Amino acid sequence: MAHAEAARNRPAHANLWADRADHIAHHTLDTNLGFSYLARAHGLRTIAPVTAAERARLAAETFATTDQRVDGGRARLCAGIAYAKVNEVGHAREQLEQAVEIFANCGARGLHAEALRELAGIG
């Protein structure tokens, strides 16, 4: 839901969903932490892109420990978009290239196409 609200350019609503994710997350379970970090990244993407990118990278690293590759790719995609927003092209490219590779290896065609579009958009 945080992602959907962020896509609608409603950061306050996205952050409310992120607050809920933080509240219900079982902080000893990496999966819960990863989703909590990713929800917060979506909530911050339009108002604090660098912080959002850092949270998304943390989510990706957390998902990597649980072998949740698609969710890790989604987190990398979010980080890449956030970095691109503040013209951190090198960091954006790094995150987006990792997302492209993850999605290609997992057969996540829609997400793969989205990551490729974002990558093409930064040049």
Salient structural properties:
mainly alpha; 81% helix; globular
Shape: globular
The helix content, as a percent range, equals over 70%
Distance between the termini: 30 Å
Mean pLDDT: 89
Please, what is the oligomeric state?
single chain
Beta-strand percentage?
A: under 5%
Summed up, the helix count is: 7
The biggest beta sheet reads: none
Number of DSSP strand runs = 0
Q: Helix-strand pattern, N to C?
A: HHHHHHH
What is the rounded Rg? Answer: 13 Å
List low-confidence stretches. none
| Classification by helices and strands | mainly alpha
Helices and strands, with pairings:
Layout: H1 2-7, H2 11-24, H3 30-44, H4 49-65, H5 69-85, H6 89-106, H7 109-121
Helix pairs in contact: 2-3, 3-4, 3-5, 4-5, 5-6, 5-7, 6-7
Structure description:
- By secondary structure, the protein is mainly alpha-helical.
- It contains seven helices and no strands.
- The protein has helices spanning 2-7, 11-24, 30-44, 49-65, 69-85, 89-106, 109-121.
- Helix 3 packs antiparallel against helix 4 (49-65).
- The protein is globular, with a radius of gyration of 13 Å.
- The chain starts with a helix and ends with a helix.
- The mean pLDDT is 89.
Provide a quick synopsis of the model.
By secondary structure, the protein is mostly helical. It has helices at residues 2-7, 11-24, 30-44, 49-65, 69-85, 89-106, 109-121.
